[in-house]
Amino acid sequence: MRCPFCRHPDCRVIDSREVDDGQATRRRRSCVECGRRFTTVEEAVLAVVKRSGVTEPFSREKVVRGVRRACQGRPVDEDALQLLAHRVEEAVRARGTAEIPSHEVGLAILGPLRELDEVAYLRFASVYRSFSSIEDFEKEIADLRRPAAGEAAEPRSGRSTG
Ligand SMILES: [Zn+2]
């Protein structure tokens, strides 16, 4: 790692800590030549493979954009979108693979979105799963009405974050 100030090729790591729940490592470095300090962040690259075969880095922002469209006019705020994207990222990273097909990112969105807002979920699912008839909606709505087996009580309150 070259010093960003004097371009000297050597630096010393003076501090190293995990950030973002251990998904990244932040290192404080000191240039052995000029002594100035700088920070680097290291994280595993998670690539999304699109249907065309093209890969691109996983982007939480992209998840938020896709879901925000489905949430138009719904009582879903920006914090909820960010939290959802965070959960999606955790879910896809938990698979432990460096590459993930884009449709599996979509799958990872469906669960948390369903908990967040059922109308937005239906919109997103209709596009994502290419609903072609009213029956597709009926079936999905029937699923929504069926209580999920073994579902725990909803953590609606009493939890403070951030
Ligand atoms: Zn330097």
UniProtKB/TrEMBL annotation:
Domain of life: Bacteria
Needed cofactors: Zn(2+)
Cofactor binding, per record: Binds 1 zinc ion.
ATP-cone domain: residues covered: 46-136
Statement: the UniProt record of this protein carries the keyword Aminoacyl-tRNA synthetase: no
GO biological process, alphabetically ordered: negative regulation of DNA-templated transcription
GO MF, any single term: zinc ion binding
Record bears the keyword Repressor: yes
Assigned keywords, A-Z: ATP-binding, DNA-binding, Metal-binding, Nucleotide-binding, Repressor, Transcription, Transcription regulation, Zinc, Zinc-finger
Record-linked Pfam families: ATP-cone, Zn_ribbon_NrdR
Record-linked InterPro entries: ATP-cone_dom, NrdR-like_N, RNR_NrdR-like
Family: Belongs to the NrdR family.
Name recorded for this polypeptide: Transcriptional repressor NrdR
Source organism per UniProt: Pseudonocardia bannensis
